Amino acid sequence: MDLLLLNFANFDSLKLIYPLLLQGLQLTLLLAIVALPLSLLSGLTVAVMYSFSGPAIRRLMMIVIDLLRAFPVLVLLVLIYYSLPFFGLTLGSFTAVVVALVINNTGYFSEIFRAGLESIPKGQHEAAAALGFHKFRGMIYIILPQAVRKVVAPLASNSLELVKTTSIASLVALPELLRSARVAQEQTYNPTPLTAAAVIFFLMLWPFSHWVSRLERKAIVGRA
């Protein structure tokens, strides 16, 4: 037991490297704060465009959405960070990670929003037109609020996954929480920093995960 604590819960090592972990945590939160709203906005934009498009454009958009969802975000980051310079476009590590996260999650969020929009009865669209709303205004003020309420649970669940995915930043040497923990491990020759990073991730995400689970249960009960 003492050996286990010495290797995975060494407080002397933790005292030395905790500033590094806090720096990594700040960067992880910053990545999530920037990438999440952009992903939601781009996903919503794609879903609304889908609603106003004709059958041919819709089929094309569905192919693009499926490609975005199927393409591994790790591979996407490699292409953005290491391949774009060959075409004259060089992005910084932070920007490359945000772009990769946004592109990947646009596919998921757009599909969630699309499902929500299509779940609204046609009668609601007709009611908006009867009230004198232009098609776009009716979408924004009447249809969209109802659709968002129906998909809060999957939106929250996917947002949680996005926060977890910020750990890909370590691939381009961006010192987010996981990368900082690895650097701290190399400095202390002790895995305690990795344990601390895991605990931080758990404490940060568990309340949100618990809230998402409650939303999902309510959604199931509401459909029953």
From TrEMBL:
Keywords: Amino-acid transport, Cell membrane, Membrane, Transmembrane, Transmembrane helix, Transport. GO terms for cellular component: ATP-binding cassette (ABC) transporter complex. CDD domains: TM_PBP2. SUPFAM superfamilies: MetI-like (SSF161098). The chain crosses the membrane at residues 20-48, 86-104, 189-208. GO terms for biological process: amino acid transport. It comes from the Bacteria. It is found in: Cell inner membrane; Cell membrane. It is a multi-pass membrane protein. Part of the binding-protein-dependent transport system for glutamine; probably responsible for the translocation of the substrate across the membrane. Belongs to the binding-protein-dependent transport system permease family. HisMQ subfamily. This is Amino acid ABC transporter membrane protein 2 (PAAT family). It comes from Neorhizobium alkalisoli.
